[in-house]
Amino acid sequence: MQDKMNKFQEFLVLGIANNTAGHMKQAGEDVILDSLDENKKRGEMPKGIFSLYLPVKKEHYLCTYPVSSTKIEILHEDEKYNIQTEPELALICEIEYAETQVKRIVPKRFTAFNDVSIRNKEVKHIAEKKNWGPNSTGVAEKSIEIDRFESGGNLDSFKLVSFLIREEELIQYSIDSWVNSYLIFYQEMLDWVVETINTQKNSGFFDNVLNQMKYSNFPTKLVLAVGGTNYTDYGEENFLKEGDEAIVVLYDSNKYNISVIEVFLGRSGAPKDGMVILRQKVNIIK
């Protein structure tokens, strides 16, 4: 059954691959790194952009709306694979065009994102590990307005962390990370995203995203998943199962610390000011 979280149905959803040092290797995605040309393999920079959802009603697997704020539905035939929570910061943006190319991306709000990923399935495109149907991606219902997307803005004080509840035990799944510690962020990242969208070709596991945007009638609204963070030892070695609850938390470190977050997650109630929480129950679709 489709989740009621449908407010992003008219948004293009894009992700940045490898915007955290070592993330793809830790996630076991060496095959994607190995497919890159030598120039892209070198240096600590993101490796490409991929689409998660195209907001157009056409016959294409990426046109299946995958977003949920409450559940992750895993297909029975995919249960045999290693499937991981991938906690990310997401920016809710506007896209401006100059004729048929992207001119500018303007972030307006930010929220918690779960780029749930199948790790060990052989696919042709990275997006096939991400969007396998309804309720395969997570976006929190709550978002926070960005005062200014630059150093010194309100994002500077936010951290991102994820947890797994398994058999009633709360376990930290990813490293407690500053959101401004991505390899590239703020204007440098926006410039890179615009250039990459406009120039990335069909190569290896990555698609020509600009062609996909044209196919989608040049959407003007965007959810940009900025990149997965690194896992704890537990998160690296343990994968989602029926009955788990995956949790991604964005929190203002000026108001809270991780110990307070852990206590809060043990209680019921809506997220407090300066806190965004995405909670998804894992179901296997028989």
Question: What's the arrangement of secondary structure elements?
Answer:
Layout: E1 12-17, H1 23-26, H2 30-34, H3 38-41, E2 48-53, E3 67-68, E4 71-75, E5 83-84, E6 87-98, E7 101-114, E8 117-118, E9 137-139, E10 144-145, E11 158-166, E12 169-172, E13 177-178, H4 186-199, H5 209-215, E14 221-228, H6 233-237, E15 245-252, H7 258-265, E16 275-285
Parallel strand pairs: 1-14, 3-9, 4-16
Antiparallel strand pairs: 1-2, 5-8, 6-7, 6-14, 7-9, 7-10, 11-12, 11-13, 11-15, 15-16
Question: Could you explain how this protein is built, in words?
Answer:
It is a single chain. By secondary structure, this protein is an alpha+beta fold. It has helices spanning 23-26, 30-34, 38-41, 186-199, 209-215, 233-237, 258-265; strands at residues 12-17, 48-53, 67-68, 71-75, 83-84, 87-98, 101-114, 117-118, 137-139, 144-145, 158-166, 169-172, 177-178, 221-228, 245-252, 275-285. It has one domain (12-285): Fumarylacetoacetase-like, C-terminal domain (Fumarylacetoacetate hydrolase, domain 2), CATH 3.90.850. Strands 1, 2, 3, 6, 7, 9, 10 and 14 form an 8-stranded mixed β-sheet that branches. Strands 4, 11, 12, 13, 15 and 16 form a 6-stranded mixed β-sheet that branches. Strand 11 and strand 12 form a beta hairpin. 42% of the residues are buried. The model has no long low-confidence stretch (mean pLDDT 91).
